[in-house]
Amino acid sequence: QVQLVESGGGLVQPGGSLRLSCAASGIIFNIYAMGWYRQAPGKQRELVAKITSGGSADYVDSVKGRFTISRDNAKNTVYLQMNSLKPEDTAVYYCNANRRTLLATNDYWGQGTQVTVSS
Question: Strand, coil or helix: what is 72?
Answer without folding.
Answer: strand
